[in-house]
Specification:
This protein is mainly beta. Helix content is about 5%, strand content about 60%. The chain contains six helices and 47 strands. The strands form ten sheets. It has a 22-stranded antiparallel beta barrel. Strands 3-2-5-6-8 form a five-stranded antiparallel beta sheet, with no helix packed on it. Strands 9-16-17-12-13 form a five-stranded mixed beta sheet. The radius of gyration is 27 Å and the shape is globular. The termini are far apart. The relative contact order is 0.10.
Amino acid sequence: MKKIILMLALATWGILYSAIVSGYIYDAATGEPIRYANIMVRKSSMGTQTNRQGYFSLSFANRGKRVLQFTQISYKTVLQEINIDDKDKDIELRIEMEKSSVKVDGIQVIGEITTEVNTREIKVGTIFTPAQELASLPQVAESDLMRSLMALPGVTPVSDFSNGMYVRGGSPDQNLIKLDDTDIYNPAHFGGVFSTFNTDAIDTVELMKGGYPSYYGGRLSSVLNITNRDGNRKDFTGTLKLSMISASTTLEGPWRIGKLKGSWMGSFRRTYIDALKPFYDEIPDYYFYDGHGKVNFDLSNSNKASVSFYNGKDNLLMDIGGDFLMSWGNSAYTGQWTHIFNPGVFGHFVLSHSHFESSMDYSDDGSLIFLRSNYIDDVTFRAKISHRFNDKNTADYGFESKFMDIFFVTDSDEQYDEDGMPYIDSKSITNSIFYHHNYTTDNFWTFEPGIRFNHYRNMEISLPSSKSSDNFNISPRFSIRRQLDFNSNVYFSTGRFYQYLALASADESSPLDIWFPIDNTVKPAVSNHFILGYKHQISDYLAFESEAYYKTYDNLLEYDMATDATWDNTIMTMSNAFHEGNGESVGVDLQLRNDWNGIQGFVAYTFGVTKRKMDGYNSNPYDGSFRKYYPRYDRTNQVNLVENLNYTQLTGKEVWGAEFKFGMNLSYYTGQPYREPERVFSDGENYYFLNSYADKVRLPDYLRLDLNFKLKWQMRRYSLEPYIEIINATNHANTWYRIYTAEENDGILSVEHEDVSMFPFLPFLGLNIEF
């Protein structure tokens, strides 16, 4: 206790006798905050970053003149001179960064683009990018956030028809996905082909592939932070987009009522495949829509607030001898308040509500053949304080309280045993306290210890044999970095992570996957991360990053598909419904990024191996023993080449009076594990297969080349941008799954197979209009 009091006293002493320079950084054209911009003090090792609200602070113990350098990807470097003549006098700045080469009074704009690797925070496995850069990648019909992320090292897709992210050996349910600080539970449209998020409404995307700080918890694998745009604070602007399957619009602008002012943004997208149904009967009656909205309140320099929402839904209706209806969707509502207590203490408070539901209804002549309905409700309050004690010590601390209600029911007029139809209603609460510290020494060392205390309680569950659970877990985190020189560093990170939810899913994640809460019969899943990394900014235009990782998993839960036939509400528990086991993942991510004169992209290579061992799964067909296996999403080698060329910027020439841009995405993955029958038997009428291990064979390797071409005509008040997307330009037959059949020749039975392919050669046309 004495040590804690001494530490706080020393920190307070540093605050009392230091001048603090703080402020917000904005986009000069739109007035929106610039998140995670780098601030360096020239001719020193001091520096920091803006937070997700665009705020920064630096403390100085000595008088004198300083030059601050502000950098961010896609923006021009800004230099600002400050003069600290009184240690008791704080300085407040408002910095505007330009994407074009202009000069602002009092601020010098430098022509080079600089990306710092030695930020104050240790960015373990972190990729941060503006959404507009992800949107430039070739996509199926239109830009898609989740699909773009799958081109990054360490992120593995399972097929063309699923946008579930498998990050460094983790399954999609192990990813914490947040939209404006609200958890999103199943971000998929169109059965997984498209993601929930409209890229036009999104400002920034941050993916942490492991070793993330203690202010995040509840998942084992990764954190995906998506931030909606605030809206233009200076002018009314808009975008209209028309693709071959959907239309969308995004509008934004400033608002003012008396002395109160702020900005707003609204975005809406809808497919129109269903409109073709009267002309093409074979087309299913299907559509999806999504809408983003945000209103910001600039109350004062010390107080800012926002209210945002998201709502999206899919509907599919088919006639299969009866009416078959599937629907699923997300909604999210978030209220945020940021308060600057003093220049060195920044508070962020969030109240959010997230809801996901899915249903599948099959009826005929008014009789219910089958119904399955599932929803998850999440209400969360979170408070986080960012505290700069002095130029060497900063901390983030706070708490999070999450209330969850999970409901799942099936029904049928043809079912006589009601207990054989699953009925689950569960209510739980998770309370967490977290602390994360950053300490930087004068000799280029940075230390980041952290800890998170979790208390999970399942307060109520409808299954009689499943009792309420009560779990208390401690989740420590630690990272250390050594700065080798101004442009390179090496670091190590480790941490322990817990998860209190399980997902019932097949080999591929889908929108109809069902979330289950843990009860007293199973333990929370736990994973340990060990990460060693190296970063080197080779030049202003070229950067290299590498990370080696090792992850362990314990208390993993894998849904037992046989439970569908043996379900009994009176005796069912989570241990009866799931296989339990453990696993491990090991691998290396390598990435070389380039950004020079209109040529921007990266080449990435990932080597990764993931293995699991689950009780009751992957059994030897002869002796019934269980063994380790490679899960379906395991791909040993991955290579991605992503490049975007702005021909006009590179050469200074236009094509037909328009700016011309070209993009490509070349992906290569080694084959996935797959099951293969060991033997085939016949009773004279039917054939029966004796199935083997889940990873008996590997499917063929995956290769896909996507291209896009864009022409942009800039008028006085608006712009026109038609584009062509070509998916799988080489028409390579990538295997989705395999169909096994039995062949009999001269009385000898053999197993044959046929491969079913994914996307063939697909061209798409579209048009973007900005005003």
